Every structure is written in structure tokens, then in C-alpha cells.
From TrEMBL, chain A:
UniProt-recorded name of the protein: ABC transporter permease
Annotated family: Belongs to the binding-protein-dependent transport system permease family.
Pfam families listed in its UniProt record: BPD_transp_1 (PF00528), OppC_N (PF12911)
Taxonomic source organism: Pseudaestuariivita atlantica
Gene3D superfamilies per UniProt: MetI-like
Topology of the protein relative to the lipid bilayer: Multi-pass membrane protein
Location(s), subcellular: Cell membrane
Length: 317, 333
């Protein structure tokens, strides 16, 4: 906190923007080139995914806009039949690779954000309850977390995907795939949140403000969610960012393996899966551009998370 | 360091710890078994899968009684466990053969792949870890560290595709899919004995082992740097021992305790990530079988894989925990 001048009317108190700019957090950001570069790429990719319909030259989901004659156009060179030119080339259907990447990134990011949100909701709630209530509730929740942690998250996600797919009627499977994917990744990833929040809650529970709230008779629900929750949020933010990178990779992996986003709604992973088929026939761009996009996206979010962890937790520096 | 006050193996605390861990492991397996069994019960009706279009209600009732599906849930669950323990996992919906036979046929491919990648990861992990610790700050060590960072951030399947692109498409040196020629030793089919089988192993095992190798390398490096600062190393130097003896006989030996535990836990991950590697390289192992089972909702195969991998994971965790307990006296309080 900066000191506020109280008795000096000649000194204008710094604006809110100015104070945010001067905070430790912003200072650490301005002095970390890695953080700035990764924040730039994250923002660039997220914004281009959000504004995909404006940026994309064609809508890859609209069959009317496709011309099969444009198939396998190399990047930058005009097509032999139609003379059209594409920045990143086209796939076998004549779809513009640049546009499919923009739309694919939308699905990758949507699944990633939604899955992390789900994991966060489950993990934070269970962590708060476990930490505040204690007793058999805590034992049950944390034991479940331990058991789940024994298995790699990607395996758990595959299994949940498989079961959910089996439960969904055949005719809805492709439509539901995205939601099943979110459920699978979200459920496979809540443990980290629960563990950290429980640990922080155990510390907060003994503090005076909680005792004061108990004394004036606030309910356990109000104390945990209104009073304790805001105080345990900063580690949650760090885990959420790192989880987002992991969720994006998990989604891409599942889709690449053919147990994720269907070809009718391709994510970056699905595009890489499709592109791998053309690796031997020389159409490298169908694989290359989605793969590089995925890499840059996952790496920037990951580095941003690393920086956030250091910036929010000075003890870990 | 040996702690003289630490309890002997027959200490009651140790026995109670072991019993508790064994009990927990059995409980986990029972829960996993329940999940696997519920998949059979709630995901699709086995009767649907077994009887054709022209079935009568009498047929359904007869088959239901024959399969024991009219029994109460706990009885069915118990029978399911009984069968699973005896290696009877039912019949694959897709292939129409007993799941146990299919698993047994696929197991050698996965185990050989996991064995080679585990060996690569441990060997190169320790060698490179020691190298980067001893030659800290040199160009070569920094290069290894930077490359390892990239290795960790690349998703497994992209590493596989990259290797295929370089070594199969561009250089045309190594096969990009399959196991090559295999030799049957009894029911075990091995790729170790033919030239093409060995060549086929190279790319998949690098893909699978790279992440674990990086992890072990970083761990060995950190531990080694930590140990080299200790007094007994300085004492050894003062005694005039040669560098080689200090580094390998005194320092490395003490770094290996955490390496063993982490490596043990990573063994499970190798099996799990084999699913990805096997799909990239169309390696005919258990992981590829599992992915195909998910794609085609082949419940018996999924359930059997789940049970099998859980037994493996729980056993590995139990052994690592007990090892750790035996090695680290601080845990015994």
C-alpha cells in the first residue's frame, strides 16, 4: 500500500490507476520480460479466438463456403485451379487452415476455461467444507482426493469420458462430446484446488475474525463462503492458471487420441489428429500450424502461471 | 544417515503402519472394483448386447437368470469380484473374445515398451543429472537444462509426431508405426530378438521416456548440488580423495534415495502415458486397446483395463510407501 497524503491539499492523491501501476504486483510484471511476452501471446490468442468470426476468412463449419477445388493449397502460393491464396494453406476439403485454427482455438479455450471453472468450483467448495467442518466429512473428502491423486489425471479423464460416452445415447454423442470433455477434465483436476484450499482454511479457521463471526452467531455457511473464501483465493488463482495450461494440453491430448472433440467441432487436438494423416504425403502445413498454435498457447499460459505464483507468493521466490 | 534410535523392523509402530497401508490399498481396490462393476450395470444393458432383434420376454428373463442379473446388487458385485480375481473379465463386446485373452496377447508389447523407456529414463536421467550438477554453469550443462525444459513443456503426442517427422519422414531411418517383426516365446511375443523389432522400439520408447528422464535428471541435479555442499563431502575432499571417488562413491549414493521413490511412482505414469505413445505409433499394446475400447464403448475391456491398472498403481504406491518408511527414519514418529 502507498501512503496516502492526508493533510496536504496541494498534493493530489494518486489515482486508482496510478496506484495499480505502482503496486508490487504490477512492478513485478513490468520487470519480468517472460511475463510480458507470455501475457502478450495469451491475450493475442484469446482475443483472436473470441473474434474468430471477424478474423477468419471463411467459416469452416459452413459447407457452402468451401470449394473442394481449393484442397491441399500450400501456404502462400496460389491454388492451381482457382488462383486463390491462403495464409496457412488449406486441408483436403479445401478448408482454410488459418480459419480452422481460429475456430479450433475457440473450442480448446472454451473447454479449458470451463473445465478449470468446474474443477475450481468442486475443489474450492470441498476444500472449504473439509477445512472448516473437519471430522468424518474431512476424512471422506481428503481420502477420496488421495485415491484420485494415485492415478494420473489424464487417465481419470479418459475413463470419465468413456463412461459418460457410454451413458449418452448414440445420436447425441457428437453434440455432447464437448460437454463430456469439460466434465471429464474438470472432474480429473479438482484435487489440487481442494488440497490447497483445505490447507489455507485450516489456518484461517483459527484467526480472530472467524471466531468473532462465530461469536455473533453467523452460520457456518456464511462464515466459510463470505469470510474465509476471500482470504484463500490467491493460491486458487495461481493453481487455476497452471491448471488452465494443463487442461488445454489434456483436451488436445484427448482429442488427438480420438476420445475428445469430434471432427464436426474440431479443437486444436482434433486438427493435429487430422493433420498427422498428411504427414507422409507432404502436406506439412495441415499439421504444423495447429501444433505450433497449441504449443505457443500452452507455453504462454504456463509461463504466466509460473510468474503469477512467484508474484503472489513472495516466500517462494 | 543411520539413525540409531530408529525402531527395528519388528517395531509395533511399523507393523501397524504396514497393516494400515495394506488395509487402505484393499479398500481402494474394492472401490475401483465397484466403479468397474457399476459400468457394467448402468452403462448399457448386457442383454441388449447378447440377444438379437427377435427376442422374447421369456428369452430375456431366462438369460437374466442364467447370468445372475436377477440377483441383488451386493451378490452380483461379489460374483463380479470373484470372477475378476480369477482373471475372468467377461467377453469383449467388439471382438467377441474373452477380455483376459486379449489383454494377455497385448501385454508383452506394452511391458517391453515400458521397460525400455523406464531404462532409458533412469539411465540417461542419472547420467545427465550428475553431469549438469558437476559441470554447473558450462555451456553444455546449460544447453541440456534448456532442452529439458522444452521436453517438459511439449505434450507427449507432439514429441512423438516430431520424432516421426524427423526420423521416419525426412531421414527415413526408423519405422513410424507397429512393432516390426516379433518372435513368439510361448505366449509372449517379443520384439527384442529381431532387427526390425529393435528398430521399431526406438522412437516410441524415447517418446514415452523423455518426460520421466527430464524429471529424474532435474531431481538428481538438485539432490547432487545439495549433497555436494554437505560437510562429509568437504571432509572427504580434505582427506585427499580423488574427485571421482567423492562424486560417485559418496555423493551419488546419497542422492539415490529420493530418486528411487520418485522413479517408483513414475512407473505408474509410464503405463498411463503409454496410452498416448501407443496411439501415436499404432503400437499394438494394452493402451491402444483401451483407447479403442473407449471409442467403441467396449465396457468389459474398459473395466478390465481399469482393474488391472489400479492393481498396478496401488501395488506400486504401497511398495514405495513401505520403502520410504524403511529408508527415512523421520516418518516413523
Amino acid at each position: 500500500m502507498t501512503e496516502m497524503p492526508v493533510d496536504r491539499p496541494d498534493v493530489i492523491p494518486p489515482s486508482r490507476l496510478r496506484r495499480a501501476w505502482d503496486s508490487d504486483f504490477a512492478w513485478s510484471f513490468r520487470h519480468s520480460p517472460v511475463a510480458m511476452v507470455s501475457a502478450f501471446f495469451t491475450a493475442l490468442l484469446v482475443l483472436s479466438a473470441v473474434f474468430a468470426p471477424l478474423l477468419a476468412t471463411t467459416n469452416p463449419y459452413d459447407p457452402a463456403s468451401l470449394n473442394l477445388m481449393n484442397g491441399f493449397t500450400a501456404p502462400g502460393t496460389p491454388n492451381a485451379f482457382t488462383g486463390e491464396s491462403f495464409l496457412m494453406g488449406t486441408d483436403d476439403q479445401g478448408r482454410d487452415v488459418f480459419s480452422t485454427i481460429l475456430y479450433g482455438m475457440r473450442i480448446s479455450l472454451f473447454v479449458g476455461f470451463a473445465a478449470v471453472l468446474l474443477a475450481m468450483l468442486i475443489g474450492v467448495t470441498l476444500g472449504l467444507v473439509a477445512g472448516y467442518r473437519g471430522g468424518w466429512v474431512e476424512t471422506l473428502i481428503m481420502r477420496t482426493a488421495d485415491v484420485q491423486l494415485t492415478f494420473p489425471a489424464i487417465l481419470v479423464a479418459m475413463l470419465i469420458f468413456g463412461i459418460a460416452k457410454g451413458v449418452t445415447p448414440v445420436e447425441y454423442r457428437d453434440q455432447m462430446a464437448i460437454w463430456v470433455l469439460i466434465l471429464a477434465i474438470g472432474l480429473s483436476d479438482w484435487v489440487q484446488f481442494a488440497r490447497v484450499v483445505r490447507g489455507a482454511t485450516l489456518v484461517e479457521r483459527k484467526k480472530e475474525y472467524v471466531q468473532a463471526a462465530q461469536l455473533i452467531g453467523r452460520s457456518g455457511f456464511a462464515i466459510t463462503f463470505r469470510h474465509i473464501l476471500p482470504n484463500v483465493l490467491s493460491p486458487v488463482l495461481v493453481i487455476a492458471t497452471i491448471s488452465l495450461a494443463l487442461a488445454i494440453i489434456a483436451e488436445a491430448t484427448l482429442s488427438f487420441l480420438g476420445v475428445g472433440a469430434p471432427p464436426t467441432q474440431p479443437s486444436l487436438g482434433t486438427l493435429i489428429r487430422i493433420g498427422q494423416g498428411f504427414l507422409f504425403s507432404g502436406e506439412w502445413w495441415i499439421l504444423f500450424f495447429p501444433a505450433v498454435t497449441l504449443l505457443v498457447l500452452a507455453l504462454s499460459v504456463n509461463l504466466l502461471g509460473d510468474w503469477l505464483r512467484d508474484a503472489l507468493n513472495p516466500r517462494m521466490r | 544417515m543411520l539413525d540409531l534410535a530408529s525402531p527395528a523392523p519388528h517395531d509395533p509402530r511399523m507393523i501397524s503402519f504396514i497393516l494400515r497401508r495394506v488395509f487402505q490399498s484393499i479398500l481402494v481396490l474394492l472401490i475401483v472394483g465397484l466403479v468397474a462393476f457399476s459400468m457394467f450395470t448402468f452403462v448399457g444393458d448386457p442383454i441388449d448386447n447378447m440377444l438379437g432383434q427377435e427376442r422374447t420376454d421369456a428369452d430375456i428373463a431366462r438369460l437374466r437368470a442364467q447370468l445372475g442379473l436377477d440377483q441383488p446388487f451386493p451378490v452380483q458385485y461379489f460374483r463380479f469380484l470373484e470372477n475378476a480375481v480369477q482373471g475372468n473379465f467377461g467377453i469383449s463386446y467388439r471382438q467377441g473374445r474373452p477380455v483376459a485373452d486379449i489383454l494377455l496377447e497385448r501385454a508383452p508389447a506394452t511391458l517391453e515398451l515400458a521397460f525400455v523407456s523406464g531404462f532409458l529414463a533412469i539411465f540417461f536421467g542419472i547420467v545427465l543429472g550428475v553431469f549438469t550438477a558437476l559441470r554447473r554453469g558450462t555451456v553444455a550443462a546449460n544447453a541440456v537444462m534448456t532442452i529439458s525444459l522444452i521436453g517438459v513443456s511439449l505434450p507427449t503426442f507432439l514429441i512423438g509426431i516430431l520424432l516421426i517427422y524427423v526420423f521416419s519422414v525426412e531421414l527415413d531411418l526408423l519405422p513410424s508405426f507397429g512393432r516390426g517383426d516379433t518372435v513368439n516365446l510361448g505366449w509372449w511375443s517379443t520384439g527384442f530378438l529381431t532387427w526390425s523389432g529393435l528398430k521399431a522400439l526406438i522412437l516410441p520408447s524415447i517418446t514415452l521416456g523423455l518426460y520421466q528422464m527430464t524429471l529424474i535428471m532435474r531431481l538428481v541435479r538438485t539432490e547432487m548440488l545439495e549433497v555436494l555442499r554437505q560437510d562429509y563431502i568437504r571432509f572427504a575432499r580434505a582427506r585427499g580423495l580423488r574427485d571421482r571417488a567423492i562424486h560417485f562413491r559418496h555423493a551419488l549414493k546419497n542422492t539415490l534415495v529420493p530418486v528411487i521413490t520418485v522413479t517408483g511412482l513414475q512407473l505408474g505414469s509410464i503405463i498411463a502415458f503409454a496410452i498416448i505413445t501407443e496411439t501415436v505409433f499404432q503400437w499394438p499394446g494394452v493402451g491402444l486397446l483401451f483407447i479403442n475400447a473407449i471409442q467403441f464403448v467396449d465396457i468389459p475391456v474398459m473395466a478390465a483395463y481399469l482393474m488391472l491398472i489400479s492393481v498396478m498403481f496401488v501395488a506400486i504406491n504401497l511398495i514405495v510407501d513401505l520403502l520410504y518408511f524403511a529408508i527415512d527414519p523421520r516418518l516413523r514418529t
